[in-house]
Amino acid sequence: MAVPFVADSADPDEVAEAIAAADGDGALEAVIANVGSNAPIAFADLSPETFESFWRTCCFSGFLAAKACLPLFERRGRGALFFTGASASLRGRPNFGHFAAAKAGLRALAQALAREYGPKGVHVAHVIIDGVINGERIRERFPGYIESLGQDGALNPDAIADSYWSLYRQPRSAWTHELDLRPFSEKW
Predict the structure, then answer these.
(1) Architecture of domain 12-22+29-179
(2) Largest CA distance in the chain
């Protein structure tokens, strides 16, 4: 059963409290660190405060989730920590340097943790979401955009969930560290 917990993802105490509450009597098996924000900002207009804010949201939050859950998983010799990245994890584009720096940092953190905690029985993976997700937020902010992409031109949230579930169910002899998901028509 999946149960959501709400916390300020950049507040160490709130993240630790949410993970502890989710663990309850030792029931926590997986954590999906899926925090992000994105906006085009020309580098000339990018303030140090905005750059840091994107880093705190997209990278530091993953660090805090890892600090809270990995000791629990290590003690048990099992568990899964999956980070949600973006195509920016792999490459920077004009007007998205702040986002690319943050998501690339998250990807590097995931790689380091996978190498450190994999041998301890903890599955750490990074999932690249490359494309727009067909959800309420995008439909409300950009009416008609999803439709303009055509059938299956946006990532379906249920299909994303199925991919995470498949990743979670992998046998330890064949763990995936990085998975990238995109609609068939995404120009990558």
Answers:
(1) 3-Layer(aba) Sandwich (3.40)
(2) 50
Q: Tens of pLDDT along 41-90?
A: 999 999 999 999 999 999 999 999 999 999 999 999 999 999 999 999 99
Report residue 82 CA to chain centroid gap: 7
Q: Where are the domains of the chain?
A: 12-22+29-179
Q: Nearest to residue 31, comparing CAs of 2, 54, 9?
A: 2
Q: What angle do CA 7, 9, 14 make, to 5 degrees?
A: 45
Q: Report in angstroms the alpha-carbon separations of 52 from 21, 36, 57.
A: 28, 13, 9
Give the helix, strand, coil percentages of the chain, each rounded to 5. 50, 15, 35
Q: How many CB atoms sit inside 10 A of residue 154's CB?
A: 22
0.85 exceeded by pTM: yes
What is the number of alpha carbons within 13 Å of residue 97 lying toward its C-beta? 12
For residues 37 and 58, is the Cβ–Cβ distance under 8 A?
Answer: yes
d(CA 98, CA 35): 15
